[in-house]
Amino acid sequence: MVTKAENQELRLKKNIKKYFLQAQPMLENGVCPTKALFAASMDKWSMFCVFNLGYFKVLRFTELKNKIPGISARMLSVSLKKLEQNGIVARKVFAEVPPKVEYTLTPFGKGLAEKLADLGNWFLAHYPNKDS
Amino acid sequence: MVTKAENQELRLKKNIKKYFLQAQPMLENGVCPTKALFAASMDKWSMFCVFNLGYFKVLRFTELKNKIPGISARMLSVSLKKLEQNGIVARKVFAEVPPKVEYTLTPFGKGLAEKLADLGNWFLAHYPNKDS
DNA sequence: CGGTATCCGTTGCGATACTG
DNA sequence: CAGTATCGCAACGGATACCG
Residue B131: what pLDDT? Predict the structure, then answer.
């Protein structure tokens, strides 16, 4: 008989194996997908940007800045540029005075947002030090 | 009529809203769950540790080091300590000479590994710059 | 074997000032 | 409004040496 916990472990092993197998040929080409993932989007400011754009759909620079307490204009600028370069965020400039720029998630960005929200919710539900 | 894409967007918004709502009371207590998540486990070395422990179940320090190309003893030590403090990794010391230490994932760590493997696999499947 | 201590160059990032 | 430029400190992290 196979217990529930054993099933879970087997599924985990299988999923990680899948990741390892897919990553292998990329590693041989000098590209590490894990590093790429982190380089593209895995820092806290990027995560805040992705969450807010996932929720509000379209935001301007200053709106986004106001929704992310503690972020500086510099880091917001840097994060958005990185996200744009990696195809996660789309930037739309309007030829107006004063200037107007709108940020949205690309389809790829929306998929990523889904996965990150999933991770965040799981973490919130299981984090043992919630009260500390 | 509601299209598939619209449904996806609604689900995304709902999931992020759930995260925001859960996070709100923690933020008022001065704890940011997103920062906690990153502080606990979101760097590339920690991710490699979690993946390898998820796959091989139990590994010793040097085994883990050998399975993670490029990691230094210092960073492996630092990462494992952080993961242990955050309840993700369990450390078992054997009173032997020469010393023997085994690392495994805690149940919390296994859950996290599942989510990270899921994220990694999604990223591998959709990353647009796979070939670059 | 399984680490720790120290050094030190590199990077991250906030603050401030400035611009089309 | 939507950024950029520069500065300066702090943290990251690799190399090396050492230890119980």
Answer: 44
